[in-house]
């Protein structure tokens, strides 16, 4: 057993005992009252999940095991003094709840580089069987499902593993799956946009650096941006669609490939991860229709207003939980101000930021008029030359694996049961409301 697994089980067993105790001895404690409005608005604010990897505050934004993004940028190991933290370090933090050393990060980097070597050929065959015009998320998810033939978890379950040991094959599967996602994503990218001219992985590189390398970007600048991108998209508490779907499917003891694939189907929705691609289409159409890359603030306002008047959402703005500017937006803006002060798209993003919150507030119905992570992430990628918008959600997905799959290991450590909330029909809700029509 490697030392990370040793640590995990040492930390995990007592916590699993606490979860059991809470269930058994405090099971009848009322934790919250739930209103009809909450249920009918998609369970907003209803506490119904146990998630330890990260926590989202409406005003402050995300904290990963207690650390904000600015703190992570300071405290997690980096390759260079002025670099960005390595996602391997964030994975370690989310898994074990403590900050990693450089040696810990190197251990994970090497483990992922080794595990990434064994992708079954049929995962690539499945991708190749799809038309190149199929959205990258279709290709990505098909490959993820195809790789479930390799599932340690499935094999261990069929072999009759003890329930309290399920976390172990889950850990093995999660490590394999995370290690392979950059290869799969880069393969799809080069297949669709670079005439199938694939680039081999470089085992000496870190996980995110390798992704940039295999996509065809070898400058230290792009690698730095990719590390930031992979860190900030990694997790957003347990109730968002991709995290919740992964957890829900995992609760049926589905293997990590099935579970993560479910999460990725959710990420592909326009109100969730696909928003990053849609922001770019929205900005591109704005520039095309106005015939300029440098529109006036008034022109941007009119364009945004026309979007709202036609009954569409402005992508990249609003959030189901956040009530302030997303710190993931703020950190990317900070990064862009430092490294890309003259980038046309970043200037446009700032103009949109100047006018859209006010317009959304004027509607009187939008609960959060501020930008989310997707309002700028595509402009950052595009400014570094990664201009193919359809791959943006897939890159989000590669990063999201870090958080949701770490939580899946913890779900099995805690021995969480199958998830089964109660549903009711309309008559039940009408009766509760005393609604007699
Ligand atoms: N533009 C226009 N209208 C918006 C809006 C936006 N950006 N954000 C919210 N609204 C509207 C809603 O559509 C809803 O309208 P309705 O009452 O007519 O149905 C009303 O405002 C109230 O919605 P809400 O309670 O403020 O938001 P929500 O929790 O229901 O939805 C979200 C949250 C993110 C889906 C929504 O803000 C949205 O559609 N934003 C644009 C898409 C986007 O950027 N998604 C990415 C989110 C981050 C992520 O997951 N990656």
What does it look like?
It comes from Marinilabilia rubra. Keywords: Acyltransferase, Transferase. Its EC number is 2.3.3.16. Helices cover 59% and strands 2% of the residues. It has helices at residues 3-25, 36-40, 69-75, 87-96, 102-115, 121-129, 136-146, 152-158, 167-193, 207-215, 220-232, 241-250, 256-267, 275-290, 297-309, 327-339, 344-363, 374-383, 392-414, 426-433; strands spanning 54-57, 61-64, 67-68. The model has no long low-confidence stretch (mean pLDDT 97). The chain contains 20 helices and three strands. Strands 1-2-3 form a three-stranded antiparallel sheet. 45% of the residues are buried. It folds into two domains: 1-20 and 46-271 and 388-420, Citrate Synthase, domain 1; 275-383, Cytochrome P450-Terp, domain 2 (Cytochrome p450-Terp, domain 2, Orthogonal Bundle). It is mainly α and 437 residues long. It is globular, with a radius of gyration of 22 Å. A hairpin with a 3-residue loop joins strand 1 and strand 2 (61-64). Amidocarboxymethyldethia coenzyme *A binds next to loops.
